[in-house]
Amino acid sequence: NSFGTGPSREVIRCLEAAGYEAVFVGGAVRDYVLGKPATDMDIATSAQPDEVKVVFSNTVDLGTEHGTVLVLMQREPIEVTTYRTEGTYTDHRRPDEVQFVKSLREDLLRRDFTMNALAMTKEGELIDLFGGKQDIAHQIIKAVGNPANRFKEDALRMFRAVRFASVLGFAIEEDTYKAIAENAQQIRYISIERLKAEMDKLFNGIDPEKAFRYIQDSGLGIHLPLFPIKAARLISTVPYESAVEGWACFMVAGNFSPTDVMKAYKLSKHEQMVITAVNEAYEKRRFQPFSIGDYYTYDLQVLFTAEKLFQAYHADKEKISNTEIMHRKQSLPIQSVKDLKVDGKVLISWTGLKGGPWTGKWIGLIEHAVLHGRCDNDSNTIKEWFLHEFNREK
Ligand code: ATP
Ligand code: MG
């Protein structure tokens, strides 16, 4: 069995040698059972945070009050969390307090879904107290315990369920789904940052369509900060190359402006730039094929997404493949102003004039002429074109 890398096994070995229990838990165990490559390895232990810090020389506190200590083992960071339960949830999102407990069972009971409540020893023995293995085999997302209670405690779990539906392509178990539909309005308690993080994972999943249907049908959609009224419009744009493509399609499907989406979900600066560009490119594409200027101005990613949206909503009109888009962009005489064979200094030497705003203006005109094939991109041809135009303007 190849579960757990050297460093994470070594962390468990050290904790066991010091007389504590320690096991792998969470998403990594789930992904292992699924046959997927494991990502971050989380370890749960009976040792108290202070005791963990005694066992290892190199640790970083990651919120000791929640019981998590980061152990640096052979330069790899490994999260070690003390077995804990969560107290009452008066705000539907964070436990008022966490209590450390002695048994793994109590720790697993607080986890959201049966597939996420698996543990594994370093020898590779699966600890499956709630039928998680079978639910994974049946591709089912099922709450641990009473679903309505679990969602009332922490409303984010409802959104995690639909996110996992997209990431894993699993179905939500019937009672779990009913509890989501009954408690959907409580998603309002969850911070935008946490919803955004789940949405990003949802967009990157293998079956976003499934998640969009759940969101619309359960009523979660109307309680989110923003969601297209017609999920079907969003569904016609799946799957996505990236989360930011998801956000761009979300915007167009919902008839939202870039600002609407940016504000509602606090998008990053980069995401704001991309969806703004897609919005612009798509607005142009709706009325005519991409122009030379469009190929020059927009990144490939932006052109691809704008074309995808065009094809989703204007199926009757003539389309263009991504390969063709790529070819047209690559065939432009220049990719950016840096590719021009001349610069401001050269213009100064040709005219004998002092530098000033005029050079920027003329570089722009040359860029335009070269891009549109009115002048080849070599120094002599540009010189001829430039001096002719420059003298004509005087
Ligand atoms: P991913 O692969 O996306 O990281 P994950 O299941 O590992 O998925 P994490 O957010 O990393 O998700 O959480 C690790 C584990 O902690 C989960 O597998 C689950 O057991 C538990 N957990 C996380 N969030 C919650 C929650 N809101 N309620 C209950 N348990 C949770
Ligand atoms: Mg994880």
UniProtKB/TrEMBL annotation:
Its EC number is 2.7.7.72, 3.1.3.-, 3.1.4.-. This is tRNA nucleotidyltransferase (CCA-adding enzyme). Belongs to the tRNA nucleotidyltransferase/poly(A) polymerase family. Residues 24-141 form the Poly A polymerase head domain. CDD domains: NT_ClassII-CCAase (cd05398). The keyword Magnesium applies. Keywords: Hydrolase, Magnesium, Metal-binding, Nucleotide-binding, Nucleotidyltransferase, RNA-binding, Transferase, tRNA processing. GO terms for molecular function: CCA tRNA nucleotidyltransferase activity; hydrolase activity; metal ion binding; nucleotide binding; tRNA binding. Residues 242-385 form the CCA-adding enzyme C-terminal domain. Residues 169-223 form the tRNA nucleotidyltransferase/poly(A) polymerase RNA and SrmB- binding domain.
